[in-house]
Amino acid sequence: MSPYGPDGRRLGLAAVQAADLIGAEPDWDGSAERRWLDGDHDALEGIMSFLRRAERGRGNLYVFARGCRTPNDQAANRRDYADNLHNLFTALPFSEAERHWLGFRADIEHGVNRRSFPRAVDVIRRQVADVYEAGRSREVNGRKVLDAFWAWRREVFEFEAAGSLDVAVEALRSIGQILLQQVPEVASYEPSFIHELQVIRDARRARREGERAAGDKRQAAG
């Protein structure tokens, strides 16, 4: 249930699911090859599903934080939702133009068949388009966009030690807490604090270094 009706409930559940999917630890063998796994497809589909619902809910979904009681509180609490959405947008490894283009292409290629999403990703990877961003025309390359998402999930290469994955998970978690009366019990909703996030990042960094070293050894031996 959601105090904001069916639209709020669906959007809140989409936020929960996306947080859990992108927060799951992905496999990586330490190589430079950005090979997509089932979890990568699931994570991207979860993000796209949330973004699609958020866009469709704009204008008819009035979102205030739980516990809101007075009109004066409503303006501040509405910013809570808007701020979390902004944090998510800026933490994702896409520019605004790339985000809209990727969502548009995913809708066209994916349709309603969930099992077709990996095929849709393969089609998007081969596409190139011209879009407008900051008043200028620029090229969007599907392969580069998807490669960035792959590395972002693993916090490697250009996203090593960036911390933006944690920001995105936290933003989605917060949106779910705003929209749902009862947050589903999933791994991504374990309470997190700054020192715990630092421990998580340190553990990830150590694991990545081990995977990279193993990959280097395999490459040298080959």
N-end to C-end Cα span: 56 Å
Major sheet strand order: 1-2
Query: How many separate domains?
Result: 1
Low-pLDDT stretches are: 65-76
Secondary-structure-based class equals: mainly alpha
User: Count of helices?
Assistant: 8
**Strand tally:** 2
What does this structure look like?
By secondary structure, this protein is mainly alpha-helical. The chain has one domain (5-221). Helix content is 64%, strand content 5%. The protein has eight helices and two strands. It has helices at 5-23, 38-57, 71-91, 96-110, 117-125, 142-154, 164-179, 194-221; strands spanning 128-133, 136-141. Strands 1-2 form a two-stranded antiparallel ribbon. Strand 1 and strand 2 form a beta hairpin. Helix 3 (71-91) packs antiparallel against helix 7. The radius of gyration is 19 Å and the shape is globular. The termini are far apart. The model is unreliable at 65-76 (pLDDT under 50).
Write a brief caption for the model:
The protein has 222 residues and is mainly alpha-helical. The protein has helices spanning 5-23, 38-57, 71-91, 96-110, 117-125, 142-154, 164-179, 194-221; strands at residues 128-133, 136-141. It contains eight helices and two strands.
List the SSEs and their pairings.
Layout: H1 5-23, H2 38-57, H3 71-91, H4 96-110, H5 117-125, E1 128-133, E2 136-141, H6 142-154, H7 164-179, H8 194-221
Antiparallel strand pairs: 1-2
